[in-house]
Amino acid sequence: MPGDGWVECGCGSRHWGLNGAAGLLAWRLDAAGDVEIALQHRAEWSHHGGTWGLPGGAIADGETPIEGGLREAAEEAGISPNSLELSATRVLQHPDWSYTTIVARADPEAEVRATDAESLEVRWASLREITGDDGLPLLPAFGAARPELRQMLGRVVLVVDSANVVGSVPDGWWRDRAGATERLRDHLRTVRTEGLAGDVVGLAGSRWFPEIHLVTEGDARGVPSAGGVRVHEAGGSGDDAIVDVAAELAVGPTVPDAGFTRVIVATADRGLAERCRQIGAGVIGPRAVRGR
């Protein structure tokens, strides 16, 4: 395919993929609530044959890393993109080449299987099989990335204080609060698809693609949910509603662990920020959301 080929990198090694390469870290929770990861047992004739790693390969001409990684995972492991919810990416940057790991949560019933000659086997593997001393023999690059990737098996939920974030930009919002809130909602749809930098949300990895909840109050009520942004109307105090929504969404571990949920509230209100921190939520300012 266009994009296949070796790159002689300035790091002194050869890497596969003229446009770089990408792979998919698909994870799911089993019936007992334990995390499983889709792993590929590489064919003996392939590079580092016989080891276990993530399905993936070279990015084709004109593809984004995410598009290429999802295509390769479908071709090699039969993983349907429709069974995945994208959560994050991690980019390993070399002088002349890069590898993007796409982290996505899979449906509990998602099936994986070897679908081409590059795989001896593809199956769901437990974390113990990956991290234990007697675990599977791993592709060296995957083994080296394992500690950081282990911290990325979760999701980010962004709760936005509509009144505060709308008021952070003097664009005439005071004349039409509902219209300004609709513009913010539409901007947040872009945040959902383009993501937030890992250092902004305080987590490992390059970018995170949050689930987004927008809390409205007063004259901004009536703005509908759209494009993956869920709108919550405050019946009374907007601050109380934001704390309630954040607390309800903080299900499971709130620090990086298998299956964690990281809730982050976007506000510059100091009192609200302190209330959110008290329930374990992170806080970022309006500028982090507006400018990403």
The CATH superfamily label of the largest domain reads Nucleoside Triphosphate Pyrophosphohydrolase
Mean pLDDT: 92
Gyration radius from CA atoms, angstroms: 21 Å
Coarse morphology: elongated
What is the count of distinct domains? 2
How many helices does DSSP assign? 9
Instruction: Tell me the distance between the termini.
Output: 34 Å
- DSSP strand (E) fraction? 25-35%
Largest sheet: 9 strands, mixed
Helical residues, percent: 25-40%
Order of helices and strands: EEEEEEHEEEHHEHHEHEEEHEHEH
Structural class, from secondary structure content? alpha/beta
Summarize the structure.
The chain has nine helices and 16 strands.
Supply the key terms.
292 residues; alpha/beta; Nucleoside Triphosphate Pyrophosphohydrolase; Rossmann fold; elongated
Structure in words:
The chain has 292 residues and is of the alpha/beta class. The chain folds into 2 domains: 6-150, Nucleoside Triphosphate Pyrophosphohydrolase (Alpha-Beta Complex), CATH 3.90.79.10; 154-291, 3-Layer(aba) Sandwich (Rossmann fold), CATH 3.40.50. It has 9 helices and 16 strands. The chain has helices at residues 65-77, 127-131, 140-150, 162-166, 177-194, 198-201, 238-249, 270-278, 286-291, and strands at residues 6-8, 14-16, 21-29, 35-42, 52-53, 56-58, 84-93, 98-106, 119-126, 154-161, 196-197, 207-208, 211-216, 229-233, 260-266, 282-284. The strands form 3 sheets. Strands 3, 4, 5, 6, 7, 8, 9, 11 and 12 form a 9-stranded mixed sheet that branches. The longest helix has 18 residues, at 177-194. The chain starts with 5 loop residues before the first strand and ends with a helix. The model has no long low-confidence stretch (mean pLDDT 92).
